[in-house]
Design a protein that fits this description.
By secondary structure, the protein is of the alpha+beta class. The protein is built from 22 helices and six strands. Strands 4-3-5-6 form a four-stranded antiparallel sheet. Strands 1-2 form a two-stranded antiparallel sheet. Helix 4 crosses helix 12. The longest helix is centred in the N-terminal third of the chain and has 32 residues. The N and C termini lie far apart (82 Å).
Length: 522
């Protein structure tokens, strides 16, 4: 028996050493050559090695997860109340996302058409009732609104902790389908994904032992739910998994930026280019261009470095109390900054950062009826293997899509703003509408239902005839819908104009001297 244990220990140590050597070596190779190597344009077999390294990293996490020393240092006990508050807050944030998701308006826009979207493809193609039901929900206006309300109701019931074993998984599935409806008609986007990751993990955790109607019902029925204020190792491990599910996507986003541009990604030139690029997006009106032009370069460098370090630091939010005190508030400020300067606001992700904070001092300040904190429960003798396997699975599920650069809903490599802009100018497009009266005006993408067109796609239309035909079709459908709402002065011509805006100098006219024009007569 002792010999078997010794062999097992030696095998685990050998796997750990191999992983510790293979993972950084392959990762450095991938950074040195860029992620294009993963697609067969670089060193042969590198992608397979990186995938093996990801699996090895998961094995390493599993090995550490069963070590008592790691659990004592990095996975402290947590109270059932803390996990219950996390469940409640996550469900409320997800319910807010569900209520504001414009699923029905996007589905029934003139440009509505399905595009491949991961798990949604399986739902639409499912045989018998499942496929017909999902298709019906996504194509009937009343049904889409009803399903949206049902999703929000399930999330609110899970937030209250009513029949959590059933309502929380059902709410997670409904949230997944609701988020897939607009993506199927537009394109893959990352907003709203983080609450789903947290909901999916919470569905398997004992998150209703406190701060829930289930716990209250158990007490009334004579049961003995865990004391809400007494930390236990079981709830500490559950909280660790939630932290991991939220932190790993941010780490993947930071790694994508570092792999795409290295340390130069955070440089002033690249940051200024990204901010200009988003300000010149055809869905906006570039209100901050004068301010961005006057801003010193070191400010852009500080913003870029802070964002990169914060996203990479989220990988350690699950294991370090100090990181949880500093990095999540920084992430929330980062989202506020992108909202102010780029018009992109991941508000649900910013709100979700609250799960990392210790709200007991605030509760005492507000005189909330919180149970007094108790001494940690006696150390549980539960086998931590299930926890270690769950943590390893989360790491692998996050790492493999990053390596493969997968964007298959809900899996994602988090490739957001990961490139490096080396040019001294930013190219952009603007859509103008010419009406029968001769009046010319910028055509807002939102009013025409052209959110699916996007700046990059419209730029490609200038070089790609196939893309131009697609844009032509989208514009014709959008203009037909707009003319139906305003028949007295219809749009007779749409012009897509291409511009180049310099990053330096004193240029102030954003729409002077177009580089080219694509005309679409209706």
């Amino acid at each position: 028996m002792a010999e078997t244990a010794a062999v097992r220990g030696a095998t685990l140590r050998a796997m750990l050493v191999a992983t510790a050597v293979l993972t950084p070596a392959v990762f450095l190779l991938s950074l040195a050559g860029g992620q294009r190597h993963f697609h067969g344009h670089g060193l042969p077999g590198l992608r397979g090695l990186v995938l093996a390294a990801c699996v090895g990293l998961g094995v390493a996490v599993a090995i550490f997860g069963v070590r008592r020393s790691f659990l004592r240092r990095c996975v402290p006990p947590a109270s059932p109340l803390a996990l219950g508050v996390i469940r409640c807050w996550t469900c409320l944030v997800a319910a807010s996302v569900a209520l504001v998701t414009p699923a029905a308006s996007i589905v029934h826009a003139p440009t509505a058409e399905l595009t491949p979207m991961g798990v949604m493809d399986l739902l639409y193609a499912a045989p018998a009732g499942v496929g017909r039901l999902s298709f019906w929900v996504a194509t009937t206006p009343a049904a889409t609104h009803a399903f949206q309300g049902l999703t929000a109701a399930l999330l609110l019931l899970a937030a209250a902790g009513w029949r959590t074993r059933w309502t929380l998984p059902l709410a997670a599935v409904a949230y997944l389908v609701l988020g897939g409806i607009p993506r199927s008609h537009l394109k893959f986007f990352h907003a709203g994904l983080l609450p789903f990751f947290a909901l999916a993990v919470l569905s398997f955790l004992p998150c209703a032992d406190a701060f829930s109607l289930d716990a209250r019902r158990r007490r009334r029925a004579g049961g003995t739910p865990p004391p809400p204020g007494v930390p236990t190792p079981r709830h500490g491990r559950a909280r660790f998994l939630v932290y991991l599910a939220i932190g790993l996507p941010y780490a993947a986003a930071g790694l994508s930026k570092f792999a795409g541009g290295g340390l130069f990604w955070a440089g002033p030139h690249n940051q200024r280019a990204m901010l200009f690029d988003q300000s010149l997006n055809p869905m906006g009106d570039a209100p901050f261009l004068p301010l961005l032009r006057m801003t010193p370069g070191f400010v852009f460098g500080f913003m870029g470095a802070s964002a990169l370090l914060a996203e990479l630091g989220m990988a350690f939010a699950a294991t370090s109390r100090w990181v949880r005190r500093v990095i999540p508030p920084t992430i929330a400020l980062m989202h506020a900054g992108t909202w102010a300067f780029m018009g992109i606001f991941f508000w649900e992700s910013a709100l979700l950062m609250a799960v990392f904070l210790n709200w007991r001092p605030l509760g005492r300040a507000l005189r909330l009826p919180l149970p007094p904190p108790g001494k940690p429960a006696e150390r549980e003798e539960r086998d931590p293997t299930r926890f270690a396997v769950a943590a390893a699975l989360l790491v692998v599920v996050s790492a493999v899509p990053w390596v493969l650069r997968t964007e298959s809903y809900p899996l994602t490599a988090m490739q957001m703003f990961a490139g490096y802009h080396a040019a001294d100018e930013v190219e952009h497009t603007r859509l103008f509408a010419i009406r029968a009266s001769g009046a010319e005006e910028p055509a807002p993408f939102q009013d025409l239902g052209l959110l699916r067109l996007g700046r990059n796609l419209s730029l490609r239309a200038f070089e790609d005839t196939q893309e131009r035909a697609r844009v032509d079709r989208l514009l014709a459908d959008a203009a037909a819908g707009a003319n139906a709402m305003q028949p007295e002065d219809p749009i007779v011509r749409l012009e897509l104009r291409r511009y180049a805006y310099p990053l330096a100098g004193t240029a102030s006219d954003v729409y002077a001297d177009p580089l080219g024009t694509l005309a679409f007569d209706l």
